[in-house]
Amino acid sequence: MDLYFSPLACSMATRVALYEAGAEANYLEVDPATKTVLSDGSDFRTVNPIGLVPTLRTDEGVVLTENAAILQYVADRFPQSGLGAAAGIDRTRLHQWLCFIGTELHKGLFVPVLDRKAPQEAKAYVLEKNLSRLDYLDNYLKGRNFLLDHFSVADAYLVTVINWTMATPPIELAKWPNVKAYYERMRQRPSIAKAIAEEFELYKAEQARKKAAA
């Protein structure tokens, strides 16, 4: 299978999940500015017209988009990994957390704050309105190791999003000690440590390319 990704973007969650599953995959880096696949210079939009990562091409040639859907596909494709949840309330809880991370944290909080073109007033409004999502998460994680009763694709997504606090100074993890402790634990997990280290190096190379082109 092929995973189209950009360094340290939300696509890193799928990299973590694939590492957890011990799955073989081709990792194809996409320049987020030009929408170019770096390995061959092709236009990524011929694969995903919206031009967003992650995008996954399965071994059967099916192209999948949207982070939550791709993560659930990986969990179902590799059930021995334990990344998913059993049918019933447990699977619904997994859906719940994937939706919460994707809407309340990823799009609702971090994307506006990370947007370099967004007015400061807009960012201040988002922070005032949506930091309560982290209050909720902090309270939930008290005494818990994972979002479910085991490591799942929801944790892979959550740690990927929390990792963005490195680039969002207004969101200081010290204010949410349970979230901070969770993040620090997760970063010690081999699949996550490997993914972050690899993608950070790719991110630095990406920034160097941009600087050289400026």
UniProtKB/TrEMBL annotation:
InterPro entries (UniProt xref): Glutathione-S-Trfase_C-like, Glutathione-S-Trfase_C_sf, Glutathione_S-Trfase, Glutathione_S-Trfase_N, GST_C, Thioredoxin-like_sf
Pfam families: GST_C, GST_N
GST N-terminal domain ranges (all copies): 1-82
Keywords: Transferase
GO terms assigned for molecular function: transferase activity
Residues in GST C-terminal domain copies: 87-214
PANTHER family membership: GLUTATHIONE S-TRANSFERASE GSTA, GLUTATHIONE S-TRANSFERASE-RELATED
Family: Belongs to the GST superfamily.
Protein origin, superkingdom: Bacteria
Name used for this protein in its record: Glutathione S-transferase
